[in-house]
Amino acid sequence: MTCRPNVLLLTVDSLRYDTVTDDTVSTPNFDSIRDNGVDFSRAYASGPYTRASVPAMVSGTHPWMYGGYARLTADRPYMAEAFSQAGYTTAAFHSNPYLSAEFGYDRAFDRFFDGQAENSLLGQIRRYVTRTLPKDSVLYRSLRWAYKRGEETTGMSIGMPYISGERLNEQVFDWLAENTDPAFCWVHYMDVHHPYVPHEDTASAGIEKQRAIRLRQKMIESPETLSEEGISTLKELYRGEIEYTDICIGELLDELERYWDMDDTVILLAADHGEAFGEHEEFGHSDILYDEVTRVPFAIHTPERDSNCISSPVSGVDILPTLLDEASIDYDRTLNGISAFQVPKEDRIVFAVAGQPDGGNVMAVEGGWKLTTDTEMEDVSLFDIEGDPQESKDVSERNEGVVGQFLDEVVGHITFVEESTDSVSRPEVSSDVENRLQELGYQE
């Protein structure tokens, strides 16, 4: 392989690790990357949702640094900057509003598609209402109510808040036909994030769209009312989206072969976080730090490395250092992560955070232990994740020495990030972005 390979970063929103290792879920393209590359079986997101996890993935720095994750600040290291400085053509394709230009993610990309210009007619009408009417007005609330009831009644998703994998691929294909080597491309698929859409030839085939919409609304608004059958159907819808995304990735890889030399290409597959389906009485992805939300796929295919499975703990913060190492790029910035291929087998703690340093939650994993705590160290839990992978039993009272060692590490981590952090406010974003965030379940 030459010293400047093409690099593809594939990330999937809300993809749990246990689903890509589940033989009942058809993911031949995920499997191909994992089986023919290096699969890191103990990878953790740096946060339980996109806002916290992706800044670490794309910068190699901890989420609470550089003012936190309210937005990607201009002084934070960034993968597009690193590859651009090395002479790469850079491109990104996604439709997650938290990764939009308004949050700073377009920096240093030659081509940046964040779905802002994609509009269905119904979506345009919805956005016009959002921009025009005060949210506390009777008319706005009435139209909002009618919108929700309309979805329930018709089984139609009135203006999806993300771009489907097929349509996203079309953007990538157009760019591939025009770009020059060497190139760095980041593609982030949103389909596995709710709202879920039933797809033919997947696990969700045969589920009525109307039922999918009603179950999603229950999951967000009143999860305690979900029946076991309803939860099972939600999981089928989720698996269907995973299988659909796998198909889209397969089509992307096929197209890639037309333009890139696959013997000179690095591909890294990862997820920003997972998804909960009531395992610990929570649904979706909020501030919880259980494995169903924090444990994610992390696999890399590179011609210079033999296929392998590595169980050393790695983190989202290691993604950028890994890509730079595989592309032999020197980036004159200090990164907190390290190349996944340089991670020691023992004595490495992996952190994830949610909320803010002055009132958030922290997860720390080392060896067979996993500790979760609030930043005040008042609500502490310890799990034996080898003997109890479901994290069903808190064993902190029986292992006070282990807890004490972990808390020392957590205090050190919080102190480190606080000393390098200035307060950064959330950016003012357009009504279009606010509306898409609302439809993804992030805002009321």
Write the layout of secondary structure elements.
Blueprint: E1 6-12, H1 17-20, H2 28-36, E2 38-40, E3 43-44, H3 50-59, H4 79-85, E4 89-93, E5 111-113, H5 121-132, H6 138-154, H7 165-176, E6 183-189, H8 209-221, H9 228-259, E7 265-271, E8 276-277, E9 283-284, H10 291-294, E10 295-296, E11 298-301, E12 308-310, E13 314-315, H11 319-326, E14 350-354, E15 361-366, E16 369-374, E17 381-384, H12 400-419, H13 431-439
Parallel strand pairs: 1-6, 1-7, 2-12, 3-13, 4-5, 4-6
Antiparallel strand pairs: 2-11, 3-10, 7-11, 8-9, 14-15, 15-16, 16-17
Kindly describe this structure.
Residues 418-444 are annotated as: Disordered. Residues 5-326 form the Sulfatase N-terminal domain. This is Arylsulfatase A. The model is unreliable at 119-123 and 151-158 (pLDDT under 50). The longest helix has 32 residues, at 228-259. Helix 6 crosses helix 8 (209-221) and helix 7 (165-176) runs parallel beside helix 9 (228-259). The protein has helices at residues 17-20, 28-36, 50-59, 79-85, 121-132, 138-154, 165-176, 209-221, 228-259, 291-294, 319-326, 400-419, 431-439, and strands at 6-12, 38-40, 43-44, 89-93, 111-113, 183-189, 265-271, 276-277, 283-284, 295-296, 298-301, 308-310, 314-315, 350-354, 361-366, 369-374, 381-384. It has a domain at 6-120 and 160-346: Alkaline Phosphatase, subunit A. It is built from 13 helices and 17 strands. The protein has 444 residues and is α/β, with parallel strands linked by helices. The strands form four sheets. It has an eight-stranded mixed β-sheet with strand order 5-4-6-1-7-11-2-12, with helices on both faces. A four-stranded antiparallel β-sheet has the order 14-15-16-17, covered by helices on one side.
